Amino acid sequence: IVDTGSWVTATACKGCEGCGGHTEDPFDVARSGTAAWEPCGPLCRDGCHGGRCLYREIYLEGSSIEGRWFRDRLRFAGDPGGAPDGEAQTASASRSFVATMGCSLGESGLFRSQRQTGILGLAPGSSQQPMFVSQLLSSRQKAGISADSAAFTLCLQDVGGWLRFGGSSRSASVRWVPLQSTGPHAKYHVNVLELSVDGHTHTVKLGRTQLDSASTLTYMPKDTYVWLRHEIERFCLSHKSCGSIAPPAGGSGHHVCWRGVKSRHHFPIVRFAMQSGVEVDWKPHAYLLQQGSIWKRFCYAFSHTRALPDGAGLVLGASWMVGQELVFDTGRGQLGVSHTHSEGASRMHRLGRGAGAAEAKGQQSVVSVRVLARTLTDSQRPLQVGKNASTLLAMDTLVRADSQAAHATSGTGLTAPRLEAGQSTRASVETRAVPIPHASTPLAGDLQPIFLATFTSLSAVMLVLKSAPRRRLPQWCAGAG
């Protein structure tokens, strides 16, 4: 799971007796020639055992993971088979860096029931315990690859998206708002001043707003939620174009849906007024989630909640991020926002063909990973919601030993090369989309992963892209090229 609302990066490890059944086998740290346990020291805020640094992370909805910290040399494998026109994914994708990650030996709640093997935390963390992304970007800066690399970009669409590390947005339409991140384990915050629908405005009392990609829904104070529902329903009643309100199939009346909807374009746009005079439109295709493939219902992708422990009154989840390119520029303390539109896969991130092309020309070098997900359309799968219930960006962490590769990819059509002695730093894999069967049970949430982009240890295996059966080709975010 890719999570902008937490900072821990961890994967299920061998020896975890309480871990659930996941997409990939647990990672065996002992099989990695470059891995080492993090020793006890001042950074071990959750204690030590047997000379090894421990961690335990509890999430807002009650789920938790715990285990030991370890360090390993990582890289993002290239994507020559999956990238448009067979081009290299990026010039710097083969470069390695050392990162600290969690080896989970205990899981509870949704971590046990979900299919994803791990979590990639993108929140800032702290200088004492830097997050995965800061370690990656720091390694780029130290190597002199990019002078403007203290940023990552997240772009989600209904059925596609990408995550880019390093560099800044080249979109001419990007608008910048102050991005705050304070505290020992900081989260990303912006300030929302007011909401408006069809010319009617509402002042947000708790404007401190958290950005959380692992939350399927967008959450707000109850008074804001009541106001927003009223304004959407007032608009629909006056225009007589939205259908009728009904509870979700198999669900309760708590989650409000519409049926008889001819098009989501008939619903109003919700406008967020932010600092620096920036206004961001939240479009109906994002705040309405489709449920059912034949008897379609469109359910609100927002709900109400109390203020969070960090003081945030609003939580902008994956539903708010759909259709936008978000640049988290931690170096400048800015969030870049620009609307995207769907184009073909040929618009996928391009920095030049061939390894080293970008660096040879002195351009910024970035790491870009494609990940895809779609909303559930099977009417027999109930709509379930909640923090970490699912994520629109289902980027799974896969770290497994080479001896497990043949077994793990058996029957999927993947090419899994063996790692010979002395070849660990050069090993790669043909990354291409291959069909895999649906799980016997649905995800504990609204969205189903289509591609699982993975990061790996150099002495383990590789990045693998997997796909589930789909009815149409992915729509890619514009502004990446």
TrEMBL record:
One of its GO terms (cellular component) is membrane. Its main location: membrane. GO terms for molecular function: aspartic-type endopeptidase activity. Residues 1-338 form the Peptidase A1 domain. InterPro entries: Aspartic_peptidase_A1 (IPR001461), PEPTIDASE_A1 (IPR033121), Peptidase_aspartic_dom_sf (IPR021109), TAXi_C (IPR032799), TAXi_N (IPR032861). Keywords: Hydrolase, Membrane, Protease, Signal, Transmembrane, Transmembrane helix. It comes from the Eukaryota. It is found in: Membrane. GO terms for biological process: proteolysis. SUPFAM superfamilies: Acid proteases. Transmembrane segments: none annotated. PANTHER family: ASPARTYL PROTEASES (PTHR13683), PEPTIDASE A1 DOMAIN-CONTAINING PROTEIN (PTHR13683:SF375). Belongs to the peptidase A1 family. This is Peptidase A1 domain-containing protein. It comes from Alexandrium monilatum.
